[in-house]
Specification:
It is a single chain. This protein is mostly helical. The protein is elongated, with a radius of gyration of 31 Å. The relative contact order is 0.05.
Length: 162
């Protein structure tokens, strides 16, 4: 007979189905978090990572249970360090972008930063003493030498000599 009544699939059956579906999704989330944690751990060597990964993939229920028991306490610490590092990188990026210095050039650099960079270029031998003096005069706002000689290695990004 093709008639189905409401009591063929009671409310409790729908509850159990939803519970199992939720637990199945939760299981996959835990499995992927553990796999990410295996790769994120800097203290563990390559063979240790390979062993844990094989254990978790080949015997997933047992592997996840053993991993959470053995290394579950340190998982939170690694997650926290990763979150703090991401936040610090984002804060540094925002600070650098807001100050006007970014990948686009040295618009946000201070005179001291520019002079330190020029000194480093001179120490490495990328620019000559004369180029250093001209670039220093440009940074400090003194009168730059006129003519084509005013182009320095600081203006061209410190290209090395060959």
């Amino acid at each position: 007979m093709g008639t189905y009544l409401a009591y063929d699939y009671p409310l409790l059956g729908a509850f159990w189905t939803m519970l199992w579906l939720f637990l199945w999704i939760l299981w996959f989330i835990l499995l992927f978090r553990i796999i990410v944690d295996i790769f994120r751990d800097d203290d563990m060597g390559g063979w240790g990572k390979a062993g844990w990964l094989a254990f978790v993939i080949l015997l997933p229920f047992l592997g996840v249970l053993v991993y959470v028991i053995a290394r579950g306490k340190s998982m939170g610490g690694r997650e926290l360090r990763h979150a703090r590092a991401q936040q610090k990188a984002f804060d540094d990026y925002v600070r650098e972008t807001a100050s006007g210095g970014g990948a686009g050039g040295g618009a946000g650099r201070s005179h001291a930063d520019e002079l330190a960079r020029l000194s480093e270029l001179r120490t490495r031998g990328d620019i000559t003493e004369e180029e250093f003096r001209r670039a220093k005069a440009l940074v400090l706002g003194d009168d730059a030498p006129s003519g084509s000689a005013s182009t320095t290695a600081a203006d061209t990004g410190g290209a090395s000599r060959s």
